[in-house]
Backbone:
C-alpha cells in the first residue's frame, strides 16, 4: 500500500501504537482524533505527558508515584504505619484503595523477579523495603504480588529476606473469587480454595 | 476513595480518557506506562502530538490531511484524476487504499450532515468539492459515505448539488459482506442485497 498519510501523522500513529493494548488501527484512530483537537487541546495533552516526567517521582518512603516528598498514603497520620502491603506496581495501590478496607501503608517493588526478562532482585525496590523495616516500628508485611510464577517467586524471595528481621510476613489468600462459579474455576484455584479451607 | 495518585498523573489519565474508545482504567494504564518511558521517549511522544498540528493541514485539492501542498494521491500523476470518491473522513481513504483497486482520487467532507449534532452542510467541505468539479475534467463522483442515516442523507444532498453540473454521480453498492453468513445478515442488508441483485 502506498502511504497516503502525512509523515507526522504516521509518526504519531507509531507513538500511540507503542502504548500497551493499542493496535495499529486504534493508533490511527487516536492520531486522527488528535488532528480534530484544537491546537490548545493538543498542547495541553502534550504538556501533560512531559509534566508527569518533570514533576512525578517516587515517594521517598513507599516508592509510589508522587509529586511531593511523600505520597498521600505515607503522609496520612490516620493510616496504620506498622503494616506494609508490598505490591508490584502503583496501579495495584489503586486497586487496594478501592476496597476502602485497607488502613495500612504500601511498598511498591516496581516489578517482579523474572530472570527471563532480565529483572533481578537488584533492580526492584527491595533494598528500600529492608531499610524501611530496619528503622523499626513495622509489625506486619503483607506480600500482595500477583498469584503468578513471578509473583510467587518474588513473594518467597522477599519474605525470606524479611523473616530474619523478626517481622510477621503474610501472603494474600487465594481461592474462589466472590461471585465466581465453582464449575468454571481452574484446577489450581480450586486446589488453593480446598487447601486453604476455613472452619465455619 | 481518597485520591492516592499524584496530580500530574491524574491530569494525564484524564487526557487519555478523553480519547475515543479509552475508558478510565485504560487511561490509567496508559498514564502509568508514560511514567515507565524514558524522559526522551516521553518528549518524543509529546512532540509528535504537537507536530501534527504544526505541520499537518488539509490538502488544497481533496482536503485529506497532508504536510505538503498536495496529498500523495492528488500529487500522483498515475491516478485517474477524473474520478472522485467522496468520503466522510481521512481514515476512509486508508480503507479504500487497502483494497489496492481504486485508481481515482478522493474528496474528504470531514463529517456528515447531522442537524442533531449541529453539523450543517456549510460546515462540511462541500463548497470545495463543487469548486473542484466547476474547474472541469471530472467524469464521475462516487458517493462513498457510510450506509447510515447521516451517510445516506449526505450522499443524497451532495448528489442533488452535483447533478446540475452534468457529472455522473454513483453510490457504493450495498449488500451481503463477502464471507458473511446469510442467516446472520440483518434485514436491511438482506433487503438491499435482494433489491440490488445482478444477473449471473
Residues:
Amino acid at each position: 500500500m502506498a502511504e497516503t498519510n502525512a509523515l507526522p501523522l504516521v509518526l504519531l500513529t507509531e507513538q500511540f501504537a507503542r502504548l500497551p493494548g493499542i493496535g495499529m488501527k486504534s493508533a490511527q484512530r487516536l492520531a486522527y482524533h488528535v488532528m480534530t483537537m484544537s491546537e490548545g487541546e493538543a498542547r495541553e495533552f502534550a504538556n501533560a505527558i512531559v509534566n508527569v516526567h518533570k514533576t512525578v517521582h517516587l515517594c521517598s518512603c513507599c516508592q509510589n508515584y508522587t509529586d511531593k516528598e511523600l505520597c498521600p498514603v505515607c503522609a496520612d497520620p490516620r493510616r496504620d504505619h506498622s503494616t506494609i502491603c508490598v505490591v508490584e506496581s502503583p496501579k495495584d495501590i489503586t486497586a487496594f484503595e478501592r476496597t476502602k478496607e485497607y488502613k495500612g501503608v504500601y511498598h511498591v517493588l516496581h516489578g517482579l523477579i523474572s530472570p527471563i526478562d532480565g529483572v533481578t532482585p537488584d533492580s526492584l525496590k527491595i533494598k528500600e523495603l529492608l531499610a524501611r523495616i530496619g528503622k523499626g516500628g513495622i509489625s506486619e508485611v503483607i506480600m500482595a504480588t500477583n498469584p503468578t510464577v513471578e509473583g510467587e517467586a518474588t513473594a518467597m524471595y522477599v519474605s525470606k529476606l524479611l523473616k530474619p528481621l523478626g517481622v510477621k510476613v503474610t501472603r494474600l489468600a487465594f481461592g474462589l473469587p466472590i461471585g465466581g462459579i465453582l464449575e468454571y474455576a481452574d484446577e489450581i484455584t480450586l486446589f488453593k480454595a480446598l487447601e486453604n479451607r476455613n472452619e465455619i
Observations:
- Chain A has a mean pLDDT of 90.
- The longest strand of chain A covers residues 80-87.
